[in-house]
Specification:
- By secondary structure, the chain is of the alpha/beta class.
- It is built from 12 helices and 12 strands.
- The protein folds into 2 domains: about 220 residues, Isopropylmalate Dehydrogenase (3-Layer(aba) Sandwich); about 120 residues, 3-Layer(aba) Sandwich (Isopropylmalate Dehydrogenase).
């Protein structure tokens, strides 16, 4: 039996537990691979009693998750007591969220888990606890470097059947983007994206579209010279390495249906340039995929939704998609060749 997926708790005061219950309930409907939740079992049982009394909890070790999964939600104890109530993070929130992530990385690194799926965290809660990384993606890279001594460059890709996008700069104030955006950064990101689309998504020759930074991709320098001096040289270097890449392209005409048919992934220069189009097209089923790591990691593409936590109203669609994609990608990494499913990114988004 393949190793199960490791699912982290995320922010315990958010909807992570809620969508986990909902996804487990629909495991047969969507053919979900076995997964286990890294959490405080007592906390999970209390939340289940509140909104999902039909969900049976089984406290197990990861190796037993596959057997337990058919009749109970497997929960692996992280050794952190959680006291947070729905919508109200407390002092237990950050330690629980971070401990679950660290345990998941340890499990996937030793083969106990086949991949990691992370429930949403609340970065502001983590920051108040002294968390120094900008977000999940960067923290995973740090954990890998600490464990292996090898520096990795994690890249965030948002994927859906309709569109795949990568923000080259991520969690930066808009005023800081220009200073941090470099030709080398675009090139390094493009290399990682092309490699992982080939090796993990089985796209033989990935097609990359590179968005311009400025309106109209700078209008030949009339609206800023960064597209000529920073972005275009990156495109030329990537093309010289044999990567199928175009750009810089005006972002305002990059995401309509006909344009999306011409590439497999769009590289955007900043956070909202990438996330606005995919959240418009695929708000309830887009998946956050971390490229550049030695293992598969996916996550729902939404936040903690404190306002509906503990009500049972949270939609599990994005988590279900993240679980499905994690299982598919980890299967390809472990056994090749693997037949493509119809809704993988070989589709011309």
């Amino acid at each position: 039996m393949p190793s199960p997926l490791a699912l982290t708790l995320g922010e315990p005061a958010g909807i992570g537990p809620d969508i986990t219950f909902a996804a487990w309930r629909r495991r047969a409907e969507f053919g979900l691979a076995p997964f286990y939740l890294l959490a405080d079992p007592g906390f999970v049982a209390r939340r289940a009693e509140r909104i999902a009394p039909d969900v049976t909890i089984a406290v197990v070790e990861p190796q037993a998750a596959g057997t337990a999964f058919e009749t109970a939600l497997p929960v692996v104890d992280i050794g952190v007591t959680v006291t947070a109530e729905p919508g109200r993070p407390d002092r237990s929130s950050a330690p629980a969220a971070l401990t679950a992530i660290r345990r998941a990385v340890a499990d996937v690194s030793t083969g106990v888990a086949s991949a990691i799926v992370t429930n949403p965290i609340a970065k502001n809660v983590l920051y108040r606890s002294g968390f120094a990384e900008p977000g999940h993606t960067e923290y995973l890279g740090k954990l890998v470097e600490e464990a292996t001594g090898v520096a990795v460059r994690p890249v965030m890709m948002l994927w859906s059947p309709e569109l795949a996008v990568v923000p080259v700069t991520i969690h930066l104030a808009l005023k800081d983007v220009v200073a941090r955006l470099t030709t080398d950064l675009i090139v390094e990101t493009g290399r990682i994206v092309a490699r992982d689309l080939r090796d993990r998504f089985d796209i033989a020759r990935p097609r990359l579209a590179i968005a311009g930074l400025n309106p109209h991709a700078g209008e030949d320098g009339a609206l800023g010279d960064e597209d000529q001096t920073v972005v275009r040289p990156a495109v030329e270097r990537l093309r010289s390495e044999g990567i199928d890449v175009r750009g810089p392209l005006p972002a305002d005409s990059l995401f309509h249906e006909a344009a999306r048919a011409s590439y497999d992934v769009a590289l955007a220069m900043y956070h909202d340039q990438a996330l606005i189009p995919i959240k418009t097209l695929a708000f309830d089923h887009a998946v956050n995929v971390t490229l550049g790591l030695p293992f598969v990691r996916t996550s729902p593409d939404h936040g903690t939704a404190f306002d509906i936590a503990g009500t049972g109203r949270a939609d599990p669609a994005s988590l279900i998609a993240a679980l499905q994609l994690a299982a598919r990608l980890s299967s390809r990494m472990q056994s090749r060749p693997v037949a493509l499913d119809d809704d993988t990114p070989r589709r011309r988004a």
